[in-house]
Protein 1
Amino acid sequence: MNERVATEIESWVERIRRGDPKAISRAITSVENRNGRVRELLQAVFPHTGRAVIIGITGSGGAGKSSLVDAMTSALRKQGKTVGVLAIDPTSPFTGGAILGDRIRMQSHYNDPGAYIRSMATRGSLGGLARATLEAALVLDAAGKDYILVETVGVGQDEVEIAKLADVTLVVLVPGLGDDIQAFKAGVMEIADIFVVNKADLPGADRVEQEIEAALSLNVAAQPDAWRPPVVKTVATRGTGAEELLETISGFIAFSKANGTWDERRQRVWRVRLLELLRDRLLQQVTQQLLGDAALNQYASSISKRTEDPYAVMDEILEKAGWHGTAN
Amino acid sequence: MNERVATEIESWVERIRRGDPKAISRAITSVENRNGRVRELLQAVFPHTGRAVIIGITGSGGAGKSSLVDAMTSALRKQGKTVGVLAIDPTSPFTGGAILGDRIRMQSHYNDPGAYIRSMATRGSLGGLARATLEAALVLDAAGKDYILVETVGVGQDEVEIAKLADVTLVVLVPGLGDDIQAFKAGVMEIADIFVVNKADLPGADRVEQEIEAALSLNVAAQPDAWRPPVVKTVATRGTGAEELLETISGFIAFSKANGTWDERRQRVWRVRLLELLRDRLLQQVTQQLLGDAALNQYASSISKRTEDPYAVMDEILEKAGWHGTAN
């Protein structure tokens, strides 16, 4: 990195640390697009991170996650805390507008310098979604936000991956949606630190709570001294229950810091991330140094036509790279 | 690979090629668990693959995908075609039973040697789901199945990844589910080669069809000479529409073979897969040779405590590995 770039990065990081929304936005855009000096930026930002609490909010469409994030932001701001919001939208060209529309609800915080709100459009690669979320959270962390609320769309495996990055994970349910479109699937029950039954003024809220309790009691894998996810009822559009939710979150943080799971979880996040970084860099070096795009397409074509097999091709490439490890 | 192992693999592959369900099941279990001689097996199986047509079936829970797969299997069997079914269940301990229950519907094919049906329980790693699906499809392909139906649960980014492996992708919708829990999100519209409106005897089927058409006409990215996904209506529980669906699938296959996109898509699948294989192997070698589990945890701990940064750690590990490429 030459001196000019180093100076630029330094001043960019300074502006991020002062909470300059433009500098933050530019950093998150770089993270999304993997462009520019994103690695240098993140490396420079990293020592200024680790302080923020990352809260993941997941649940089916229609559960009112955006309203809940809005209500939590208001409640945190009232306590004098600063907030960063990342709304993770695996956008489709068909729905980009609709999802963007949801964000308009957050306009109540638009002129508040203590709240930074950002939709992340992360179409495409899978691991990329979790990676970009983690890196964007680092930027907001360095920008001094006390709490980073990461809101995911839907409840799939990718949301589970994103939730694993969070220090605290909320799973939001509502009365009236069928079981199979709720969180009772795809490993979502297991990731909840706290359940939120939103729209709790609708009929059936008690039944949802009972179903959660019933499902939790089926979890034979749970350790006796482990945290048992509590259920908090909210009516997010009116702000009802937001303060109780924040108290419950504080309770979870205190619990997991005391029993060591807080640090364990953060360590696990970085273990996974480090392996990803290594894997991507190794691949990048092999492809850049030994395997141009044309060669790669040629191999893929031979494989898809069955004139070569992928394992033999892999050995061939690794041989060229000077790697002679044991095959597996 | 020593001679004994080679002989074992050879006889295993022979049994798979004769369609022996036990040999197939054992191979798919090995693929799921990454255990035993899975690499050797897949390498031996590979030259006998490439003939089967892989059909991906995705759509929300409650869309009747299992019934549709059942109806398609029956219709294909009537045509004398052999069928392999892979039902991809990212299982939760809470719902394992329910999803397994769905599979019971497929019991009509239980005693039919021309139909092999398998639920794949693939909790855990994300890319692993797509990888295992592709490898299980290779096994069924080598076993001589004419059609491999890959049914996913739900409509998330992981389903999109799985759908990308298929030669033909069906997106299943039903009347009466709200837009935001249907496929009009998360890039699912774009992956459809054919839309199926199932439960078409329910009110609102025409409206769903109109919504699909409206959404398709918004897709400005579509090339004028590209395939425009047709909509087929079915009542899968009665088998209604299954034959029309198979005809539409044949039409798509003929179209994409004629314009070259068939080969292009298969080449793209193998390009991605080859890069994944390379990436995983490179990482495996670095971690095995240079970075034990304890060292990895130590690094992750230092990073999470911010005493080291992940990029510097990565450079350090790569340096040890003798890699000195350009950083990025």
Protein 2
Amino acid sequence: MAPQATAVRLADLQRPVGPQLARVPDELRRIVSADSPLLEKVSGYLLRSQGKLFRPTLLFLSNQASGAVDEHGLRLAAIVELIHLATLVHDDSVDHSALRRGQPTVNALFSHQVSVIMGDYLFSRAIRELVAMDDVEPLRILSHVTNEMSMGEMRQLAAYDAVQFTEEEYTVVIRAKTASLFSAACELGARRADATRRRALRAYGDALGLAFQITDDLLDYTGGEAVTGKPSGLDLREHKATLPLIAALPGLSASERRAVEALFAEKEPADEDVARVIGLVRRSGGLEYSRERALECAGRAEAALEELPSSQARDALRDAVVYAVERRR
Amino acid sequence: MAPQATAVRLADLQRPVGPQLARVPDELRRIVSADSPLLEKVSGYLLRSQGKLFRPTLLFLSNQASGAVDEHGLRLAAIVELIHLATLVHDDSVDHSALRRGQPTVNALFSHQVSVIMGDYLFSRAIRELVAMDDVEPLRILSHVTNEMSMGEMRQLAAYDAVQFTEEEYTVVIRAKTASLFSAACELGARRADATRRRALRAYGDALGLAFQITDDLLDYTGGEAVTGKPSGLDLREHKATLPLIAALPGLSASERRAVEALFAEKEPADEDVARVIGLVRRSGGLEYSRERALECAGRAEAALEELPSSQARDALRDAVVYAVERRR
């Protein structure tokens, strides 16, 4: 893929499905509403500090691009976003993160306890809503995905050792953690279409998700706090070996490698040690390599779209690929 | 219900379904097996330190007592146990418990991170296995229950204030937290039977679950460490207002009530303060009242069984009621 000269804004690619997206917040509120003040308070907070609705966007665009009508599109889009929200709440609890995109996390604002239970609540609401749809196919897809996501998280935990983690393992993790839900959103959008289009959109979502996550991991090395909404080098601080480091390691000298190992052995690494390892990764080509991998996945996502007829929605899905790899946050 | 003079042992009431129960561990292993060393390690640990399989016991006995054949009984029993395990793992993480029945918890032995993700993993495996059954009814029942359970946990968190918590709210919490899964296990066991038996066993499970949980909460006031497997007074230490305290409060003098409030305001209450409040609860009749409530629920559970024909399994379900309220741990 040749990166576009002009930046794609999220709002641009969301335009073809703007009316549907506008209804997602109310649909989410309907699904999570509960007769419990604390639940209302926490879910109200979560829904107010709402994200970009990127997964619902993909679902609606896939639906439009596949040419099939789906009377449950809104419901499915909200369920997909809800599963995403549930995993964010547990991820922040697992990582003890205090901020997400500049906003306090549930564990920071309420408590660790509330965040564990809230994640369970949101997830079980999503499942309950899926069951109420009386169609086992979305349930099959999403129950598989949620299981994949928890396996990805566990693999990531198990891999808190820079030197051992391979690119192959990294890919397994980000596919499970991120690409699986992207892929499911796209496939669900096309669930009423023929098998070819459905397969194409599933493959598109998978490749897009990989490109998106690699870019995310890159931004952790290249972005500053104001840009990414989280401190640069956070993955290193948390001893998460992502692609930039994995790719850089083979090119490091023995003493440079020891510096990396020392950082991973340090419970709370000093800023200068983090900065030094970021410098090593940059000089050893870890950023370029990761960027190439992201673009390669982006290219595969674009190629998958060729199975679909030309449409405004297909153009927007193409723009989503550019957005995934060119965004600065 | 007139409590029996002789104690009922769990092994006695499990006898009619012994062969089925013996197959649950392997079925659990089949469902949770994963291509990940850490997942295998944690789930292996959980399955080895296996509990009493009380919920599978109820499911199998209900199945036998309802007179209906269920080709998926084993699978459902393992799924119900798996959901129970998933909630235990998250409960221990939420409570920061180090021990459960004398064994280290997952959060203590591995980490808080591992326990959050492990709970998600077990729960999503249970859902995936339910979806694979291709029958939406068990899914409907259990997705409702898991949602209830998380709501119960959240209500309990919200109610960390002794003075405000009413018996009615307490009953809502324990019904959601405990009785809902008991009731689902019994109903699922009878899912191939006619509506009357099914309804009877659902009601039986609900009443049994309430009796079981009230007894559990009583044991926290009356049991010693060696007996309950957890330190006596733990609920008080964690500022959980359960029935013994709720029932005792109205009878306390103003100064006694202030002692309770002081304990609930203390982050780590001293042993003597816990002992003092336990003494107040005892003298104010909180234990007798709770015991009466447990026996009243036990009576309702027994009465529900009258809808079923006489059988060895029905006798065992009756024994389960005695076990629930007479056990010492």
